[in-house]
Design goal:
With 470 residues, the chain is of the alpha+beta class. Among the domains are: 2-99, Phosphorylase Kinase, domain 1 (2-Layer Sandwich); 103-329, Orthogonal Bundle (Transferase(Phosphotransferase), domain 1). It has 12 helices and 10 strands. The chain has helices spanning 2-10, 64-75, 105-111, 119-138, 190-193, 202-217, 227-238, 267-270, 276-285, 296-300, 312-319, 331-465, and strands at residues 22-30, 34-41, 47-54, 84-90, 93-99, 103-104, 141-142, 151-153, 160-162, 169-170. The strands form 3 sheets. The protein has a 5-stranded antiparallel sheet with strand order 1-2-3-5-4, with helices on one face. It has a 3-stranded antiparallel sheet with strand order 6-8-9. Strands 7-10 form a two-stranded antiparallel ribbon. The longest helix has 135 residues, at 331-465.
Length: 470
Protein backbone atom coordinates (compact mmCIF):
# COMPACT_ATOMS: atom_id res chain seq x y z
CA UNK A 1 0.00 0.00 0.00
CA UNK A 2 2.95 2.27 0.70
CA UNK A 3 3.96 2.41 -2.95
CA UNK A 4 0.61 3.89 -3.99
CA UNK A 5 0.84 6.56 -1.27
CA UNK A 6 4.40 7.34 -2.30
CA UNK A 7 3.28 7.80 -5.89
CA UNK A 8 0.45 10.16 -4.89
CA UNK A 9 2.73 12.24 -2.66
CA UNK A 10 5.45 12.31 -5.32
CA UNK A 11 2.93 13.66 -7.84
CA UNK A 12 2.12 16.54 -5.54
CA UNK A 13 -1.28 15.47 -4.19
CA UNK A 14 -2.20 15.22 -0.53
CA UNK A 15 -2.64 11.67 0.76
CA UNK A 16 -6.36 11.09 1.20
CA UNK A 17 -8.17 7.83 1.82
CA UNK A 18 -11.73 9.05 2.20
CA UNK A 19 -14.35 9.25 -0.53
CA UNK A 20 -16.94 10.93 1.70
CA UNK A 21 -16.45 14.23 -0.11
CA UNK A 22 -17.70 12.72 -3.37
CA UNK A 23 -21.08 11.15 -4.06
CA UNK A 24 -21.40 8.90 -7.12
CA UNK A 25 -24.42 9.72 -9.27
CA UNK A 26 -24.17 7.27 -12.17
CA UNK A 27 -21.75 5.29 -14.29
CA UNK A 28 -21.06 7.08 -17.56
CA UNK A 29 -18.44 4.92 -19.27
CA UNK A 30 -15.21 2.95 -19.33
CA UNK A 31 -11.85 4.68 -19.54
CA UNK A 32 -8.52 3.28 -20.70
CA UNK A 33 -7.96 1.57 -17.37
CA UNK A 34 -11.06 1.98 -15.22
CA UNK A 35 -14.68 2.99 -14.80
CA UNK A 36 -15.86 6.60 -15.12
CA UNK A 37 -18.64 7.99 -12.93
CA UNK A 38 -20.60 11.18 -12.83
CA UNK A 39 -20.39 12.41 -9.24
CA UNK A 40 -21.06 15.37 -6.95
CA UNK A 41 -18.66 17.20 -4.68
CA UNK A 42 -20.53 17.42 -1.36
CA UNK A 43 -18.47 20.44 -0.28
CA UNK A 44 -18.84 22.64 -3.36
CA UNK A 45 -21.94 20.94 -4.84
CA UNK A 46 -20.03 20.86 -8.12
CA UNK A 47 -20.61 18.05 -10.62
CA UNK A 48 -17.37 16.20 -11.31
CA UNK A 49 -16.13 13.10 -13.16
CA UNK A 50 -14.53 10.25 -11.19
CA UNK A 51 -12.16 7.76 -12.83
CA UNK A 52 -11.81 4.64 -10.69
CA UNK A 53 -8.59 2.63 -11.08
CA UNK A 54 -8.44 -0.91 -9.68
CA UNK A 55 -5.09 -1.17 -7.97
CA UNK A 56 -5.30 -4.91 -7.25
CA UNK A 57 -5.02 -5.63 -10.96
CA UNK A 58 -1.30 -4.90 -10.93
CA UNK A 59 1.20 -6.45 -8.52
CA UNK A 60 3.39 -3.38 -8.56
CA UNK A 61 0.65 -1.08 -7.26
CA UNK A 62 -0.57 1.90 -9.26
CA UNK A 63 -0.89 1.05 -12.98
CA UNK A 64 1.68 2.78 -15.15
CA UNK A 65 -1.11 4.27 -17.26
CA UNK A 66 -2.57 5.95 -14.18
CA UNK A 67 0.80 7.27 -13.00
CA UNK A 68 1.40 8.58 -16.51
CA UNK A 69 -1.97 10.35 -16.73
CA UNK A 70 -1.71 11.84 -13.24
CA UNK A 71 1.82 13.15 -13.77
CA UNK A 72 1.07 14.61 -17.19
CA UNK A 73 -2.24 16.22 -16.29
CA UNK A 74 -0.88 17.68 -13.08
CA UNK A 75 1.71 19.56 -15.10
CA UNK A 76 -0.44 20.39 -18.14
CA UNK A 77 -2.72 23.25 -17.16
CA UNK A 78 -4.37 24.49 -20.36
CA UNK A 79 -7.76 25.73 -21.49
CA UNK A 80 -8.08 22.95 -24.07
CA UNK A 81 -7.05 20.09 -21.78
CA UNK A 82 -9.41 18.55 -19.24
CA UNK A 83 -8.54 19.66 -15.70
CA UNK A 84 -7.44 17.14 -13.06
CA UNK A 85 -8.75 18.49 -9.74
CA UNK A 86 -7.88 15.84 -7.18
CA UNK A 87 -6.56 12.31 -6.55
CA UNK A 88 -8.09 10.08 -3.87
CA UNK A 89 -6.73 6.72 -2.66
CA UNK A 90 -9.43 4.55 -1.08
CA UNK A 91 -9.86 0.79 -0.48
CA UNK A 92 -7.27 -0.41 -3.00
CA UNK A 93 -8.64 2.00 -5.55
CA UNK A 94 -7.34 5.21 -6.95
CA UNK A 95 -9.83 7.88 -7.98
CA UNK A 96 -8.94 10.71 -10.35
CA UNK A 97 -11.25 13.71 -9.97
CA UNK A 98 -11.81 15.66 -13.20
CA UNK A 99 -13.96 18.60 -14.20
CA UNK A 100 -17.25 17.26 -15.60
CA UNK A 101 -18.20 17.69 -19.25
CA UNK A 102 -21.09 15.47 -20.37
CA UNK A 103 -20.77 16.02 -24.12
CA UNK A 104 -18.08 14.72 -26.46
CA UNK A 105 -17.52 15.45 -30.13
CA UNK A 106 -18.87 12.04 -31.20
CA UNK A 107 -22.18 12.59 -29.38
CA UNK A 108 -22.35 16.15 -30.71
CA UNK A 109 -21.93 15.02 -34.33
CA UNK A 110 -24.44 12.18 -33.91
CA UNK A 111 -27.10 14.40 -32.31
CA UNK A 112 -26.59 17.47 -34.51
CA UNK A 113 -26.80 16.55 -38.23
CA UNK A 114 -26.73 20.23 -39.21
CA UNK A 115 -23.29 20.55 -37.55
CA UNK A 116 -21.56 19.81 -40.88
CA UNK A 117 -23.34 22.82 -42.41
CA UNK A 118 -21.67 25.18 -39.95
CA UNK A 119 -18.08 25.62 -41.24
CA UNK A 120 -17.28 28.26 -38.62
CA UNK A 121 -18.13 25.87 -35.77
CA UNK A 122 -16.04 23.10 -37.38
CA UNK A 123 -13.19 25.58 -37.70
CA UNK A 124 -13.45 26.64 -34.05
CA UNK A 125 -13.46 23.03 -32.85
CA UNK A 126 -10.50 22.11 -35.08
CA UNK A 127 -8.57 25.15 -33.89
CA UNK A 128 -9.09 24.18 -30.25
CA UNK A 129 -8.04 20.57 -30.90
CA UNK A 130 -4.85 21.77 -32.58
CA UNK A 131 -4.24 24.27 -29.82
CA UNK A 132 -4.42 21.59 -27.15
CA UNK A 133 -2.23 19.21 -29.17
CA UNK A 134 0.32 21.92 -29.96
CA UNK A 135 0.56 22.61 -26.23
CA UNK A 136 1.14 18.90 -25.55
CA UNK A 137 3.77 18.61 -28.26
CA UNK A 138 5.61 21.75 -27.16
CA UNK A 139 6.00 20.08 -23.77
CA UNK A 140 7.14 16.75 -25.21
CA UNK A 141 3.88 14.87 -24.71
CA UNK A 142 2.12 12.62 -27.26
CA UNK A 143 -1.57 11.99 -26.68
CA UNK A 144 -1.66 8.81 -28.85
CA UNK A 145 -5.41 8.19 -28.50
CA UNK A 146 -7.14 11.07 -30.22
CA UNK A 147 -10.69 10.33 -31.37
CA UNK A 148 -14.04 12.18 -31.21
CA UNK A 149 -15.01 10.34 -27.99
CA UNK A 150 -11.93 11.81 -26.21
CA UNK A 151 -12.74 15.41 -27.14
CA UNK A 152 -15.07 16.90 -24.54
CA UNK A 153 -17.27 19.95 -25.17
CA UNK A 154 -18.63 22.55 -22.76
CA UNK A 155 -22.28 22.98 -23.82
CA UNK A 156 -22.38 26.52 -22.44
CA UNK A 157 -19.35 27.97 -24.23
CA UNK A 158 -18.55 25.38 -26.96
CA UNK A 159 -15.04 25.17 -25.52
CA UNK A 160 -13.37 21.87 -26.49
CA UNK A 161 -10.94 19.95 -24.26
CA UNK A 162 -8.66 16.96 -24.79
CA UNK A 163 -9.33 14.07 -22.40
CA UNK A 164 -8.23 10.49 -21.58
CA UNK A 165 -4.44 10.75 -21.41
CA UNK A 166 -4.16 7.11 -20.35
CA UNK A 167 -2.07 6.27 -23.43
CA UNK A 168 -0.16 9.55 -23.51
CA UNK A 169 3.65 9.39 -23.32
CA UNK A 170 6.31 11.94 -22.60
CA UNK A 171 9.08 11.87 -25.19
CA UNK A 172 12.53 13.36 -25.52
CA UNK A 173 15.11 13.74 -28.23
CA UNK A 174 15.91 11.43 -29.87
CA UNK A 175 12.38 10.03 -30.20
CA UNK A 176 11.96 6.92 -28.10
CA UNK A 177 10.83 3.50 -29.25
CA UNK A 178 7.14 2.94 -28.47
CA UNK A 179 4.61 0.17 -28.92
CA UNK A 180 2.51 0.38 -32.08
CA UNK A 181 -0.63 -0.98 -30.35
CA UNK A 182 -2.05 2.46 -29.63
CA UNK A 183 -4.65 4.79 -31.10
CA UNK A 184 -8.13 3.66 -32.11
CA UNK A 185 -7.87 1.98 -35.52
CA UNK A 186 -9.78 4.56 -37.58
CA UNK A 187 -7.51 7.39 -36.42
CA UNK A 188 -4.22 5.46 -36.44
CA UNK A 189 -1.34 6.94 -38.46
CA UNK A 190 0.07 4.85 -41.35
CA UNK A 191 3.55 4.66 -39.79
CA UNK A 192 2.05 2.91 -36.73
CA UNK A 193 -0.04 0.60 -38.94
CA UNK A 194 3.15 -0.34 -40.82
CA UNK A 195 4.83 -1.37 -37.56
CA UNK A 196 7.07 1.60 -36.86
CA UNK A 197 8.21 1.87 -33.24
CA UNK A 198 9.99 5.17 -33.78
CA UNK A 199 7.18 7.66 -34.10
CA UNK A 200 6.51 11.08 -32.70
CA UNK A 201 4.13 14.06 -32.80
CA UNK A 202 2.96 13.47 -36.42
CA UNK A 203 0.83 10.52 -35.22
CA UNK A 204 -1.39 12.95 -33.29
CA UNK A 205 -1.63 15.30 -36.29
CA UNK A 206 -2.79 12.40 -38.49
CA UNK A 207 -5.54 11.62 -35.97
CA UNK A 208 -6.61 15.27 -35.96
CA UNK A 209 -6.80 15.18 -39.78
CA UNK A 210 -9.10 12.14 -39.64
CA UNK A 211 -11.30 13.93 -37.08
CA UNK A 212 -11.33 17.08 -39.26
CA UNK A 213 -12.61 15.11 -42.28
CA UNK A 214 -15.17 13.33 -40.10
CA UNK A 215 -16.58 16.66 -38.88
CA UNK A 216 -16.94 17.86 -42.48
CA UNK A 217 -18.41 14.63 -43.92
CA UNK A 218 -20.33 13.52 -40.81
CA UNK A 219 -18.83 10.03 -41.14
CA UNK A 220 -15.41 8.45 -40.46
CA UNK A 221 -12.85 8.90 -43.23
CA UNK A 222 -11.04 5.54 -42.83
CA UNK A 223 -13.42 3.08 -41.06
CA UNK A 224 -11.26 -0.04 -41.35
CA UNK A 225 -12.17 -3.28 -39.59
CA UNK A 226 -8.59 -4.57 -39.35
CA UNK A 227 -5.09 -3.10 -39.60
CA UNK A 228 -4.63 -4.19 -43.21
CA UNK A 229 -8.12 -2.99 -44.15
CA UNK A 230 -7.35 0.33 -42.47
CA UNK A 231 -4.12 0.66 -44.46
CA UNK A 232 -5.85 -0.11 -47.74
CA UNK A 233 -8.65 2.38 -47.03
CA UNK A 234 -5.95 5.01 -46.48
CA UNK A 235 -4.00 4.07 -49.62
CA UNK A 236 -7.14 4.16 -51.79
CA UNK A 237 -7.33 7.89 -51.05
CA UNK A 238 -3.70 8.94 -50.53
CA UNK A 239 -2.21 6.51 -53.02
CA UNK A 240 0.08 3.59 -52.16
CA UNK A 241 3.40 4.96 -50.86
CA UNK A 242 6.73 4.37 -52.59
CA UNK A 243 10.32 5.20 -51.70
CA UNK A 244 9.90 8.34 -53.80
CA UNK A 245 6.83 9.61 -51.92
CA UNK A 246 7.88 8.28 -48.51
CA UNK A 247 11.61 7.57 -48.16
CA UNK A 248 12.20 4.61 -45.85
CA UNK A 249 8.71 3.12 -46.17
CA UNK A 250 10.10 -0.12 -47.65
CA UNK A 251 12.07 -0.77 -44.47
CA UNK A 252 9.05 -0.57 -42.14
CA UNK A 253 8.28 -4.00 -40.58
CA UNK A 254 4.79 -4.44 -42.01
CA UNK A 255 5.22 -2.86 -45.44
CA UNK A 256 4.89 -5.26 -48.37
CA UNK A 257 5.95 -4.62 -51.95
CA UNK A 258 2.95 -6.75 -52.96
CA UNK A 259 0.49 -4.13 -51.69
CA UNK A 260 -1.99 -3.03 -54.41
CA UNK A 261 -0.78 0.06 -56.25
CA UNK A 262 -3.43 2.77 -55.90
CA UNK A 263 -3.10 6.28 -57.26
CA UNK A 264 -3.90 9.30 -55.11
CA UNK A 265 -7.43 10.71 -55.29
CA UNK A 266 -8.30 14.38 -55.57
CA UNK A 267 -8.90 15.17 -51.89
CA UNK A 268 -11.45 17.85 -52.82
CA UNK A 269 -13.73 15.07 -54.11
CA UNK A 270 -13.37 13.22 -50.80
CA UNK A 271 -14.48 16.25 -48.75
CA UNK A 272 -16.71 18.12 -51.25
CA UNK A 273 -18.15 20.48 -48.61
CA UNK A 274 -14.73 21.81 -47.58
CA UNK A 275 -13.31 25.01 -49.09
CA UNK A 276 -9.95 25.07 -50.88
CA UNK A 277 -8.02 26.34 -47.84
CA UNK A 278 -9.50 23.55 -45.72
CA UNK A 279 -8.62 20.92 -48.35
CA UNK A 280 -5.04 22.21 -48.42
CA UNK A 281 -4.74 21.99 -44.62
CA UNK A 282 -6.27 18.50 -44.59
CA UNK A 283 -3.86 17.29 -47.29
CA UNK A 284 -0.93 18.49 -45.15
CA UNK A 285 -2.33 16.68 -42.09
CA UNK A 286 -2.87 13.45 -44.04
CA UNK A 287 0.57 13.39 -45.66
CA UNK A 288 1.77 9.77 -45.61
CA UNK A 289 5.39 10.67 -44.87
CA UNK A 290 5.41 11.73 -41.21
CA UNK A 291 8.53 13.85 -41.73
CA UNK A 292 6.59 16.00 -44.22
CA UNK A 293 3.34 16.10 -42.23
CA UNK A 294 2.40 19.56 -40.96
CA UNK A 295 2.94 20.23 -37.25
CA UNK A 296 0.11 21.25 -34.94
CA UNK A 297 1.71 24.64 -34.38
CA UNK A 298 2.12 25.30 -38.13
CA UNK A 299 -1.46 24.15 -38.71
CA UNK A 300 -2.68 26.86 -36.32
CA UNK A 301 -1.05 29.45 -38.59
CA UNK A 302 -2.62 28.05 -41.77
CA UNK A 303 -4.72 30.26 -44.04
CA UNK A 304 -7.80 28.18 -43.19
CA UNK A 305 -8.03 29.92 -39.80
CA UNK A 306 -7.54 33.50 -41.03
CA UNK A 307 -11.23 34.45 -40.72
CA UNK A 308 -11.71 33.55 -37.06
CA UNK A 309 -10.06 36.78 -35.97
CA UNK A 310 -7.34 35.20 -33.84
CA UNK A 311 -3.95 36.88 -33.44
CA UNK A 312 -1.78 33.85 -33.90
CA UNK A 313 1.57 35.58 -33.88
CA UNK A 314 1.15 37.23 -30.52
CA UNK A 315 -0.47 34.08 -29.18
CA UNK A 316 2.21 31.79 -30.53
CA UNK A 317 5.09 33.54 -28.78
CA UNK A 318 3.56 32.75 -25.39
CA UNK A 319 1.46 29.64 -25.97
CA UNK A 320 3.86 27.07 -27.31
CA UNK A 321 7.30 28.22 -26.22
CA UNK A 322 9.08 26.99 -23.14
CA UNK A 323 10.48 23.61 -22.25
CA UNK A 324 11.25 24.00 -18.57
CA UNK A 325 10.02 21.46 -16.03
CA UNK A 326 7.01 23.51 -14.87
CA UNK A 327 4.46 24.51 -17.51
CA UNK A 328 2.84 27.93 -17.81
CA UNK A 329 -0.92 28.26 -17.31
CA UNK A 330 -1.44 30.56 -20.34
CA UNK A 331 -4.25 32.41 -18.58
CA UNK A 332 -4.38 35.26 -21.09
CA UNK A 333 -4.50 32.89 -24.04
CA UNK A 334 -7.15 30.75 -22.37
CA UNK A 335 -9.30 33.82 -21.82
CA UNK A 336 -8.90 34.72 -25.49
CA UNK A 337 -9.82 31.27 -26.80
CA UNK A 338 -12.75 31.12 -24.38
CA UNK A 339 -13.88 34.52 -25.60
CA UNK A 340 -13.67 33.30 -29.19
CA UNK A 341 -15.54 30.10 -28.38
CA UNK A 342 -18.28 32.07 -26.63
CA UNK A 343 -18.37 34.52 -29.55
CA UNK A 344 -18.83 31.65 -32.01
CA UNK A 345 -21.54 30.16 -29.80
CA UNK A 346 -23.33 33.52 -29.58
CA UNK A 347 -23.04 34.00 -33.35
CA UNK A 348 -24.68 30.61 -33.85
CA UNK A 349 -27.43 31.52 -31.38
CA UNK A 350 -28.01 34.78 -33.26
CA UNK A 351 -28.22 32.86 -36.55
CA UNK A 352 -30.79 30.50 -35.00
CA UNK A 353 -32.82 33.47 -33.73
CA UNK A 354 -32.65 35.10 -37.16
CA UNK A 355 -34.00 31.94 -38.82
CA UNK A 356 -36.72 31.73 -36.18
CA UNK A 357 -37.76 35.32 -37.00
CA UNK A 358 -37.85 34.49 -40.73
CA UNK A 359 -40.14 31.54 -40.05
CA UNK A 360 -42.29 33.66 -37.74
CA UNK A 361 -42.65 36.38 -40.40
CA UNK A 362 -43.66 33.80 -43.02
CA UNK A 363 -46.22 32.28 -40.68
CA UNK A 364 -47.62 35.70 -39.81
CA UNK A 365 -47.89 36.56 -43.51
CA UNK A 366 -49.74 33.30 -44.15
CA UNK A 367 -52.02 33.97 -41.19
CA UNK A 368 -52.72 37.46 -42.56
CA UNK A 369 -53.76 35.99 -45.90
CA UNK A 370 -55.89 33.42 -44.11
CA UNK A 371 -57.63 36.14 -42.08
CA UNK A 372 -58.32 38.11 -45.26
CA UNK A 373 -59.80 35.01 -46.91
CA UNK A 374 -61.92 34.40 -43.80
CA UNK A 375 -63.28 37.94 -43.95
CA UNK A 376 -64.15 37.53 -47.64
CA UNK A 377 -65.98 34.26 -46.98
CA UNK A 378 -67.86 35.88 -44.09
CA UNK A 379 -69.01 38.67 -46.40
CA UNK A 380 -70.27 36.15 -48.98
CA UNK A 381 -72.09 34.31 -46.21
CA UNK A 382 -73.77 37.51 -45.08
CA UNK A 383 -74.91 38.16 -48.67
CA UNK A 384 -76.36 34.66 -48.86
CA UNK A 385 -78.13 35.17 -45.55
CA UNK A 386 -79.84 38.28 -46.96
CA UNK A 387 -81.06 36.26 -49.94
CA UNK A 388 -81.94 33.35 -47.73
CA UNK A 389 -85.69 33.99 -47.04
CA UNK A 390 -86.82 34.66 -50.70
CA UNK A 391 -84.80 31.71 -51.91
CA UNK A 392 -86.27 29.41 -49.29
CA UNK A 393 -89.80 30.53 -50.23
CA UNK A 394 -89.14 29.92 -53.91
CA UNK A 395 -87.75 26.47 -53.17
CA UNK A 396 -90.81 25.69 -51.06
CA UNK A 397 -93.10 26.68 -53.96
CA UNK A 398 -91.19 24.44 -56.35
CA UNK A 399 -91.47 21.59 -53.86
CA UNK A 400 -95.21 22.05 -53.64
CA UNK A 401 -95.57 21.94 -57.43
CA UNK A 402 -93.55 18.76 -57.60
CA UNK A 403 -95.67 17.13 -54.89
CA UNK A 404 -98.89 18.17 -56.68
CA UNK A 405 -97.69 16.74 -59.97
CA UNK A 406 -96.79 13.53 -58.22
CA UNK A 407 -100.26 13.30 -56.73
CA UNK A 408 -101.87 13.85 -60.13
CA UNK A 409 -99.64 11.38 -61.85
CA UNK A 410 -100.11 8.65 -59.30
CA UNK A 411 -103.67 7.57 -60.38
CA UNK A 412 -102.63 7.77 -63.99
CA UNK A 413 -99.76 5.53 -63.25
CA UNK A 414 -102.03 2.95 -61.60
CA UNK A 415 -104.51 3.13 -64.54
CA UNK A 416 -101.76 2.63 -67.06
CA UNK A 417 -100.46 -0.30 -65.12
CA UNK A 418 -103.97 -1.85 -65.17
CA UNK A 419 -104.40 -1.31 -68.92
CA UNK A 420 -101.00 -2.71 -69.56
CA UNK A 421 -101.89 -5.79 -67.57
CA UNK A 422 -105.14 -6.26 -69.53
CA UNK A 423 -103.28 -5.84 -72.81
CA UNK A 424 -100.74 -8.45 -71.83
CA UNK A 425 -103.52 -10.87 -70.84
CA UNK A 426 -105.38 -10.26 -74.16
CA UNK A 427 -102.18 -10.75 -76.10
CA UNK A 428 -101.49 -13.97 -74.31
CA UNK A 429 -105.11 -15.11 -75.00
CA UNK A 430 -104.79 -14.16 -78.67
CA UNK A 431 -101.52 -15.98 -78.97
CA UNK A 432 -103.03 -18.99 -77.30
CA UNK A 433 -106.00 -18.96 -79.68
CA UNK A 434 -103.72 -18.52 -82.66
CA UNK A 435 -101.73 -21.43 -81.43
CA UNK A 436 -104.92 -23.56 -81.26
CA UNK A 437 -105.96 -22.36 -84.72
CA UNK A 438 -102.59 -23.21 -86.15
CA UNK A 439 -102.87 -26.64 -84.62
CA UNK A 440 -106.31 -27.16 -86.24
CA UNK A 441 -105.04 -25.98 -89.61
CA UNK A 442 -102.09 -28.34 -89.34
CA UNK A 443 -104.40 -31.22 -88.46
CA UNK A 444 -106.76 -30.32 -91.31
CA UNK A 445 -103.87 -30.21 -93.79
CA UNK A 446 -102.76 -33.61 -92.64
CA UNK A 447 -106.32 -34.93 -93.16
CA UNK A 448 -106.55 -33.38 -96.63
CA UNK A 449 -103.20 -34.85 -97.58
CA UNK A 450 -104.29 -38.28 -96.40
CA UNK A 451 -107.61 -37.96 -98.27
CA UNK A 452 -105.84 -36.98 -101.47
CA UNK A 453 -103.58 -39.96 -101.17
CA UNK A 454 -106.60 -42.28 -100.78
CA UNK A 455 -108.41 -40.72 -103.77
CA UNK A 456 -105.38 -41.13 -106.01
CA UNK A 457 -104.99 -44.68 -104.86
CA UNK A 458 -108.68 -45.48 -105.73
CA UNK A 459 -108.35 -43.88 -109.16
CA UNK A 460 -105.33 -45.97 -109.88
CA UNK A 461 -107.12 -49.12 -108.89
CA UNK A 462 -110.20 -48.27 -111.07
CA UNK A 463 -108.02 -47.58 -114.06
CA UNK A 464 -106.48 -51.01 -113.82
CA UNK A 465 -109.94 -52.76 -113.80
CA UNK A 466 -111.32 -51.07 -116.94
CA UNK A 467 -110.51 -52.93 -120.17
CA UNK A 468 -109.80 -50.87 -123.23
CA UNK A 469 -112.53 -50.95 -126.02
CA UNK A 470 -111.83 -51.20 -129.73
Amino acid sequence: MGSEVTVILRLGFEQRDCMDQYEKVEKIGEGTYGVVYKARDRVTNETIALKKIRLEQEDEGVPSTAIREISLLKEMQHGNIVRLQDVVHSEKRLYLVFEYLDLDLKKHMDSTPEFAKDPRQIKMFLYQILRGIAYCHSHRVLHRDLKPQNLLIDRRTNALKLADFGLARAFGIPVRTFTHEVVTLWYRAPEILLGSRHYSTPVDVWSVGCIFAEMVNQRPLFPGDSEIDELFKIFRITGTPTEDTWPGVNSLPDFRSSFPKWGAKDLASVVPNLDSAGVDLLSKMLCLDPSKRITARSALEHEYFKDIAFKMKSLGSNSFAGSSGRLSTEENDDEEISRLAISAYQAREEEIERKKMEVKEKVEAQLGRAEEETRRLAQIWEELEVLGDPMRKELANVRKKIDMANRELKPLGLSCQKKEKEYKEALESFNEKNKEKAQLVSTLMELLTESEKLRMQKLEELSKNIEPTL
